[in-house]
Amino acid sequence: MRKGVFPGMEHLMMPWIGKTMKHIDHFIATKMAEHGINLTRQQVILMKILFHDGPLPQNNLAFVTDRDKTSLTRLLSTMEKKNLVARITSTEDKRVNVVHLTKNGEKILNETAPILLEVIMHMQEGIDEDDQKTVISVMQKIQENINKHIDSCSSNK
Fold first, then answer.
1. I need a surface site. Which of 51, 55, 81, 115 has the fewest CB within 10 A?
2. Could you give the angle at the alpha carbon of 79 between the alpha carbons of 75 and 81, nearest 5°?
3. Are residues 98 and 117 in the same domain?
4. Contact status, residue 45 vs residue 84, Cβ threshold 8 Å
5. Domain check: are 30 and 106 in the same one?
């Protein structure tokens, strides 16, 4: 049997973070489906952004969701078919689509809140408060390290 290309990866955090995110995505989708809600984590995030920040130009959403334009367009098309969002041409600039959360989208988002809280509670079962604080601290340090290196890369250009 061949050894992996990256021996020792099981001792590094990155593979564990990636695997955990896949499990979280699947768990959220399963719990939503159990309640008759057909939404992905990405759709919930986008709806939450629109709920809190109001209608936003599509380009701004691409930036805040860290998605490329094609990927965001596909996501928005799916969400429009579900009547969760509406893209409306800006009155000031006809080249700009402003994305709005529909009344149905707001209703569905409100229905997801208790489900997501249930998911979070299940995920944190058996993890004491100190361990939770440690995980949060480690994740913050990882984000700081990434940002530091991104900043240094962009200043080297």
1. 81
2. 120
3. yes
4. no
5. yes
pTM of this structure: 0.74
The tens digit of pLDDT for each residue in 28-43 reads 889 989 999 988 888 9
- Domain around 147: 127-157
The span from the CA of 86 to the CA of 77, in Å, is: 9
User: What does the H/E/C string look like for 84-153?
Assistant: CEEEEECCCCCCCEEEEECHHHHHHHHHHHHHHHHHHHHHCCCCCHHHHHHHHHHHHHHHHHHHHHHHHH
My answer on whether 108 and 152 are in the same domain is: no
- Whether residue 145 is found in the same domain as residue 72: no
Q: Which of 97, 51, 90, 92 is nearest to 76 (CA)?
A: 97
Residue 39, classified by CB atoms within 10 Å of its CB into exposed (0-12), middle (13-18) or buried (19+), is: buried
For residues 25 and 44, what is the distance between their CA atoms, to the nearest angstrom? 11
